[in-house]
Amino acid sequence: LCLPLQVCAQLCQRPCYCPWMPPRCPRGSPLVLDGCGCCKVCARRLGEPCDFLHVCDRSQGLVCDYSAGPVGTGATCNFEDSEEGCEVNGWLYRDGEVFQPSCKLQCRCLGGGFTCIPLCQEDVRLPTPDCPYPRRVEIPGKCCPEWICEARDQYRQQDAAAALGAGSPLLPSLCQEWGTEWSACSATCGVGFSTRVSNQNQYCRLETQRRLCMARPCPALPAASP
């Protein structure tokens, strides 16, 4: 018990002499008091080195773990009670934490891995009389793409380009290909069909497309008893 007290007495000098301006911390690292309760420092994050003065972020459940590495190599911030975390794009999250790697996704760290759900609606807008040529575009300043109605004249040019052929140097195609993912097979075994909405056709118009699919062969029926 004497050794830690002596070390603390050597590190903690009174009165405190702290910088006039507190340090600027990276995103996700709050300002906290150092181990002496004297100056404000940036809390260390998961996996970062720590010691008595440079403390870990307790709000994230981190402690300075001296058993994580070989003896004499120092300590690193780790979750208390060996709680699992996950790493996404260089950022470390604790188990159960909800985070957004981008404005289009919301993810949850669970059991060392993570699952995500989209925040943008993946709706499909089919042509209607008031909007015969819908197109999904990125809007500056907005995260999720939105549907707009293109002018009819532009699609007349696209139709003319398709009629002349894709290799025509006179009127290049203006079509921007778009389509949804193929749906799951309609049958759990045997032959079924899957669908998607796509404009990958001669006239660059949205249409529902179908194709045959087979998830797995159906098991053979048991032979009838005599």
TrEMBL record:
Record carries keyword Disulfide bond: yes
| Segments forming domain IGFBP N-terminal | 4-77
What Gene Ontology terms for biological process does this UniProt record contain?
A: cell adhesion; positive regulation of cell differentiation; signal transduction
The VWFC domain is annotated at 84-150
Q: Which UniProt keywords apply?
A: Disulfide bond, Secreted, Signal
- Keyword Lipid biosynthesis found: no
Q: Where in the cell is it found?
A: Secreted
The gene name reads: Wisp2
Q: What family is it from? A: Belongs to the CCN family.
| Gene Ontology MF term list | heparin binding; integrin binding
- GO CC terms for this protein? extracellular matrix; extracellular space
Just give the chief location class: secreted
Q: Give the domain of life.
A: Eukaryota
Q: Report the protein name in the record.
A: WISP2 protein
Question: Which Pfam families does this one have?
Answer: IGFBP, TSP1_CCN, VWC
Q: Which PANTHER family match?
A: CCN FAMILY MEMBER 5, CONNECTIVE TISSUE GROWTH FACTOR-RELATED
